[in-house]
Batch of 2 targets.
Target 1
Amino acid sequence: MRAVVTGGAGFIGSHVCERLLESVCDDVVCVDNFITGEPANIARLTGRAGFRLLVSDVVDGLEIDGPVDAVLHFASPASPADYLRHPLATLRVGAEGTRHALELAAAHGARFVLASTSEAYGDPQVHPQPESYWGNVNPVGPRSCYDEAKRYAEALTMAYRRSLGVDAGIVRIFNTFGPRMRPGDGRVVPNLIRQALEEAPMTVTGDGSQTRSLCYVDDLVDGVLRMLGASISGPVNLGNPHEVTMLELAHWIRRLTGSRSAIVQVPLPEDDPRRRRPDIALAAAELGWQPRTPVEEGLLRTIEWFAERRKGAGVLAEV
Ligand code: NAD
Ligand code: UDP
């Protein structure tokens, strides 16, 4: 099998490339323009037989020589700090980038998997969130460049499936964490770990009572590969239902790192969702999937990776 992974040099995409080569693929083409990804994420793969890196912006087009059996479309800024810095690039990759990835799948008769997001539910009024919930998104707020781009990408994916018969599926990914998150990407897990390791103030937004449900990256990738091997359209939620408040998370990370950092309150960003937890009954029924890594174990592995990186670089860069 030969797969094309857009955004393959990013946090999740690099793990996807690696797992594909370890399991079902002889060849993986990683397409990335490095807007938020890093060459270091794919350093272990570069030069390895069957792996090819194409430095390219999927907004400009996506042409691949030779056969293509699978297209996994992961290209998009994903951290709020990143997409607020790049709102137009985020809208373009969700719209034109997704169209190009779907065209590639259509031309080759390939299976297509879209990396969508729990942000499709916005600030949810239904809890936990099943796939049947249509969401509560502010279409003109600061986060809309990401949320609406992904909702459009979902609509486009379904239209290609319905009208052109593309074997396309959608996964809605909930907050995922693990090694290779950029320490300065602004998301809560890398921020809190970096701050804890540096004995700097640990920032919790608002009163910290808002919740997220955190999934370790290896489990998430397992779900993505199962979706690749299926032929259903979804959307299917992939996430760990273990829900925590952000204040609890800060205390948890402080304990696991043995840090003496103070936990400080900073302003809550506009339209920050109050709570989020996936209903994963569909993933269990259709894909036989559920997360297996306890959040604490995932946090320990991530902390270890950040500590190693800090040892190497001397400092963990901020946003
Ligand atoms: P990331 O920023 O680490 O990775 C995204 C990758 O896409 C980067 O390598 C970036 O350079 C690349 N990219 C962006 N625009 C591109 C373009 N126009 N052309 C080529 N490459 C481009 O983010 P991530 O956390 O790994 O997220 C990967 C995907 O999963 C995204 O589509 C994101 O929306 C989705 N997702 C992630 C999470 C999460 O918790 N990490 C949650 C929901 C959805
Ligand atoms: N957050 C926080 N401290 C930080 C960064 C983020 O408390 O240093 C909060 C953020 O406001 C949100 C939650 O943590 O309520 C998750 O934020 P993240 O950016 O990781 O993901 P998303 O908002 O996209 O779920």
Target 2
Amino acid sequence: TLDHHPSGRHFLQIPGPSPVPDRLLRALSLPTIDHRGPEFAALGKRVLSGMQQVFGTQHPVVIYPASGTGAWEAALVNTLSPGDAVLMYETGHFASLWQKMARRLGLVPEFLARPGTCAATGLPLSWRHGVDAALIGERLRADPGHRIKAVCVVHNETSTGVTSDIAAVRAAIDAAGHPALLMVDTISGLASADYRHDEWGVDVSVSGSQKGLMLPPGISFNALSPKALEASRHAGCAKAFWAWDEIVEMNRTGYWPYTPNTNLLYALSESLDLLLTQGLPAVFARHQRWAAGVRAAVQAWGLPIQCADPAVCSPVLTGVVTPAGVDADALRALIHRRFDLSLGTGLGKVKGRMFRIGHLGDCNDLTLMAALSGVEMGLRLAGVPLAGSGVQAAMDHFAGHPAPDGPAA
Ligand code: PLP
């Protein structure tokens, strides 16, 4: 409860919200300024141009005072009309929620999935793998009349710890000669995993503040392409608050048509400063290195990593499958109670069967070692048979792979 104050700091090791760096917390606490005044325009322009760099785009980025779910809705209602067919791909819980939203908005989503169940874990195979671009290409070739108006995929599926190859999806759409828009949810990928809106030919990228950008929850993003902007001029879904036109127009001068989330924009400006000063390649490499250390731990425990394809394991989080009969949520509760460590719950089809370790944002080797120690102690207390010490394996990994940007580099 809120009146319970354990000593030391809480370990927020879920895959977002991620821990907020002190520098951002201080920025959040600055006095709120006039969002129509002269100082604000400089802030507005700075964060918009910084976000273009993070998305890898020359085209407009829209910032909403909303959680990621709002930016999902914005992507759909700005570009599509009621009754439009949309090809979506089941990679996990978040892909499923976006599909459910499309249906509620009066669109007609078709939900592709890799068929089958994993014999070893009992989990659906589509929840252990990334998007199969060939399946998308095949489906689009069977749509010569171009009824399908958009392809929607999740870049980093936060419920499974699996990434998808977005360039391959674009290549499959192009190879099929199909004009569908490509929309990508990179809510938990952006600013942690390599992402290139323009280069990968994405029409709408969707992201949020509370993951790689290290902000609290509360703002979210759409990055647009010229083709998406053109589609928005004719799309028939009702839209007002989410409509890009007035926002993009006013953003040219650094302002918004409504009251933006000023204090979160202060924090965003700090975050962009941190990320862009280090350089995004260093940020991506750091996350890959942490992920490899965490995977070394899970492998040493002898537990299955939910991502079955090593080439696409998420740099942001690792899904750990618990042995049959071990309730992953009971284990999480025990670890929280004993060690003040929060781990991600299993969502949707994998509830109770797995937990998620977040390794994103404001972490370092030692905070991750502490988190892994908490998990290992919890696994032992829960009586889960372990093949070996994951903590030792991760220590060996981190010691043997010095961080290129680390203290002793
Ligand atoms: N998509 C993905 C991949 C997510 O990880 C999340 C949240 O965790 C969402 C969508 C929904 O975003 P929000 O909870 O900010 O509305």
